[in-house]
Specification:
By secondary structure, this protein is an all-alpha fold. It contains 5 helices and no strands. Helix 1 packs antiparallel against helix 3 and helix 3 packs antiparallel against helix 4. The N and C termini lie far apart (75 Å).
């Protein structure tokens, strides 16, 4: 396998790549605007998460098309990026939301009460002492 560039892409591949790159940039921009414009943390957290996910998917499709056409073979290495983003973004968002919700409850803000499953049961001995 040589590392030389084979030449310009066919027109259809350039168009597909350009469309997906612009879509990825648009998703990222919309997520950024949502981060800046939305009023509370709980509303703000969704825009960049969705924007990042959509942007990464679009950029990955553009990368796969570009390098597959350039190397005359299927280039799926970029799909690993989507896999890692799809696994880590929701988990990170959940942890951030739970931490913010905990902090708001500690301050006594008007947020939903903790679910029954989130409350730690008091052992029977400690309840009798109170």
């Amino acid at each position: 396998m040589s590392d030389t560039i084979l030449g310009p892409l066919p027109l259809w591949a350039e168009i597909v790549t350009a469309v997906f790159v612009v879509m990825g940039a648009a998703f990222a921009a919309i997520g950024s605007f949502g981060l800046v414009r939305l009023p509370t943390f709980f509303r703000r957290i969704h825009a960049p998460t969705l924007g990042a996910t959509g942007g990464v998917w679009s950029m990955t499709v553009a990368t796969i098309v570009y390098f597959s056409v350039q190397s005359n073979g299927l280039f799926l290495h970029a799909a690993l990026i989507v896999l890692f983003v799809a696994l880590t973004t929701p988990v990170t968002t959940i942890f951030l939301m739970r931490a913010a919700l905990f902090r708001e409850r500690q301050k006594g803000s008007d947020v939903p009460a903790a679910a029954q499953s989130d409350q730690v049961p008091i052992p029977k001995r400690m309840a009798e002492e109170e």
